[in-house]
């Protein structure tokens, strides 16, 4: 799903025989492991003779540049957690559970009743479920929040809810309003993350619709919403429409293109994020068979960016299709789907209390579970580091609270906070 039970995350493919366990996964952990099966995914790849695009080689890691190892502090256990978030300026921490609930973290467990429970509306399992929550920038006054999930028909849906007053401990279920619905042909590659960008617009990440190799050629088709980052204004509802289109979206007024589209050419952007300090965008796009990639895009290049799928898988040629390469985004970092890796879980640039980590982009692989990081310098990934002591089985997502502290979720149930070394 870009999530859960199936890794809700964009987990997509069958892992090697011994790794066919979702919650247990391929991590070397001695702890007891919950087990949920990951559905197998087709991986046959068309051959392509086109040349691979060239990506700057990341600088080799050096002991002198390597930051001190922080630690993971377990803050609670939940039912298949896939995301952590907080309203702006609010000290509360909310955990999204794949099955359809958003719960507040309270003394190591979920506060009951749930902040939001839409289990009856959510089709959960495999890569489907409730994926994320996004609190409006003015949540303290509006009480508006948005959730992304697969509905009972297997389609992608974005709903709005309201808390009245915003300080209340529940979103009002009667306030549910459909913002956007997108038909989804297969069960996988749902994307699922939604977040507000630095300008206050809601950005929606959607996968290519599923199946192997983008069989519908949707990612490059500007007339469909799948395989895209969408950008809308959910608070502006012109002429009774459920959302407004920002005037600066790149395809407004272009024939044969949907005006909601902000960027395209994505396979399964399970987790992506904006750096709040620089407004840079980082996208973790799950690969098909061979390569997992992280894309870095500065603000000036985000509008209309083409991430290249399915022409390219990472920097490798994948499918012989014509694409518009003038706005092509080349991965800033990639790694092979081998050695226990199976699907990238994008993270974010760390801005929390661990001084040594500030400015480092953190990410991981769902199966291997080792948190990795790098800095961007001159458009290149440098100070590349594996934090080998920071390993989380079935690492489904990263998330942040309003203070900038970063959290890591395991589909097996645990939620951790990244903390300074003792």
List keywords for this structure.
422 residues; mainly beta; four-stranded antiparallel β-sheet; 1 helix; globular; single chain; five-stranded antiparallel β-sheet; disordered N terminus
Specify the overall morphology. globular
Task: Please summarize the sheet with the most strands.
Answer: 5 strands, antiparallel
How confident overall, as mean pLDDT? 87
Q: What Rg, in angstroms, do the CA atoms define?
A: 20 Å
Unreliable residue runs? 1-64
Termini Cα gap: 36 Å
Strand content: 25-35%
Briefly note the structural class of the backbone: mainly beta
Based on DSSP secondary structure assignment, what is the total number of beta strands?
27
Query: Total helix count?
Result: 1
The string of secondary-structure elements, in order, is: EEEEEEEHEEEEEEEEEEEEEEEEEEEE
Measured as a percent range, the helix fraction is under 10%
